[in-house]
């Protein structure tokens, strides 16, 4: 469903030096698959998601979704950024409804659904607040509702639970699994947490330090439905250990050291 072929991304930093963020990435994500991307900070995970979302154009290579080349942002994608990025002057409810507004769709009949999503993430009663009145974690939960409002078949999530406290994070993890199972979405999920990756994913993509490359793609053979208790299982421990070792041995390339 999502295909990347020979994708490289080069940025120019402020001193005009070239930054190779991604080098020769090939990746396939099947329909309804849950793929997690892990790797050291700065290895190009966010860049990869922004490319798939059509927010930036690759320097080299091609990206397609459902056989169609990605050239601009798409309506069938919901995206959760690493930072909440809510509009500061709009209420929480209006922020959640924003994607529909931007697509020129009616928002009135979507209000119950927006309220239902906000209830799901524990933001009932905060609908008319402004983002600035919420904590970072609450803003991020509102941003997750915003990504889900139009029920997109594809979800791109960039460390969406990073700003949440441990308990909320666990709740949201299980809620996301539930949504994915119920609505059969295709999800690409970036995380720092190896446990989170193994708990969520069908496949874990391990990336190396800059320039970001795919080191390995591991299949997660832990049975579903998944639960946090499975962390103790040998199969879970085995794959988490492999992911950890791969990240550790690919933290830095010699020329970066
Ligand atoms: N717009 C940009 N301009 C210049 N450099 C960028 C830009 N976006 C990202 N980079 C650089 O590309 C590399 C990868 O960044 P990023 O994708 O944010 O990594 P990650 O999400 O894995 O931490 C970093 O070195 C970062 O500084
Ligand atoms: Mg990032």
Describe the structure in your own words.
It is built from 7 helices and 10 strands. The protein has 257 residues and is α/β, with parallel strands linked by helices. A hairpin with a 6-residue loop joins strand 9 and strand 10. The N and C termini lie far apart (37 Å).
Topology overview:
Layout lengths: L1 E11 L5 E12 L4 E5 L6 H8 L7 E6 L2 E2 L7 E4 L11 H11 L8 H10 L15 H13 L5 E5 L7 H18 L2 E5 L3 H7 L2 E5 L6 E6 L14 H16 L8
Parallel strand pairs: 3-8, 3-9, 6-7, 7-8
Antiparallel strand pairs: 1-2, 1-4, 4-5, 9-10
Helix pairs in contact: 2-4, 6-7
The chain binds adenosine-5'-diphosphate and magnesium ion.
What can be said about this structure in brief?
This protein is of the alpha/beta class and 257 residues long. Helix content is 32%, strand content 24%. Strand 9 and strand 10 (214-219) form a beta hairpin.
List its traits.
32% helix; single chain; 2 domains; alpha/beta; binds magnesium ion; four-stranded antiparallel β-sheet; 257 residues; six-stranded mixed β-sheet; Rossmann fold; 10 strands; binds adenosine-5'-diphosphate; 7 helices
> What is bound: which ligands?
adenosine-5'-diphosphate, magnesium ion
Write the CATH homologous superfamily of the largest domain.
P-loop containing nucleotide triphosphate hydrolases
Helix content: 25-40%
Q: What is the rounded Rg?
A: 18 Å
Instruction: Quote the distance from N terminus to C terminus.
Output: 37 Å
Number of E-state strands: 10
Broad shape:
globular
Count of separate structural domains: 2
CATH architect. name of the largest domain: 3-Layer(aba) Sandwich
Q: Helices and strands, in N-to-C order?
A: EEEHEEEHHHEHEHEEH
**Overall average pLDDT:** 93
**What strand order characterises the main sheet?**
6-7-8-3-9-10
Number of helices: 7
Any idea of the CATH class of the largest domain? Alpha Beta
Tell me the major beta sheet.
6 strands, mixed
Strand content: 15-25%
- Strand pairing plus helix content: what structural class? alpha/beta
Low-pLDDT sequence parts = none
The third-level CATH topology of the largest domain is: Rossmann fold
């Amino acid at each position: 469903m999502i295909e990347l072929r020979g994708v490289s991304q080069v940025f120019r930093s402020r001193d005009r030096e070239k930054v190779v963020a991604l080098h020769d990435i090939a990746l396939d994500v099947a329909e309804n698959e849950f793929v997690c991307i892990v790797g050291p900070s700065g290895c190009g995970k966010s860049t990869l998601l922004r490319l798939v979302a059509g927010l930036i154009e690759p320097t080299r290579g091609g990206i397609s979704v459902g056989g169609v080349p990605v050239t601009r942002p798409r309506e069938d994608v919901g995206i959760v950024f690493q930072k909440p990025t809510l509009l500061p002057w709009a209420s929480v409810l209006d922020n959640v409804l924003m994607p529909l507004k931007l697509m020129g769709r009616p928002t009135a009949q979507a209000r119950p659904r927006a309220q239902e999503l906000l209830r799901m993430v524990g933001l009932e009663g905060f609908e008319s607040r402004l983002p600035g009145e919420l904590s970072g974690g609450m803003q991020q939960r509102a941003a997750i509702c915003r990504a889900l409002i139009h029920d997109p078949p594809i979800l791109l999530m960039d460390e969406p639970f990073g700003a949440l406290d441990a308990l909320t994070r666990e709740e949201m993890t299980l809620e996301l699994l539930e949504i994915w199972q119920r609505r059969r979405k295709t999800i690409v999920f970036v995380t720092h947490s190896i446990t989170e990756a193994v708990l969520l994913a069908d496949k874990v993509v391990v990336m190396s330090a800059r320039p970001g490359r795919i080191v390995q793609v591991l299949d997660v053979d832990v049975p579903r439905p998944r639960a946090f208790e499975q962390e103790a299982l040998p199969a879970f421990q085995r794959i988490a250990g492999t992911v950890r070792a791969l990240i550790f041995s690919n933290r830095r390339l010699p020329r970066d050291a």
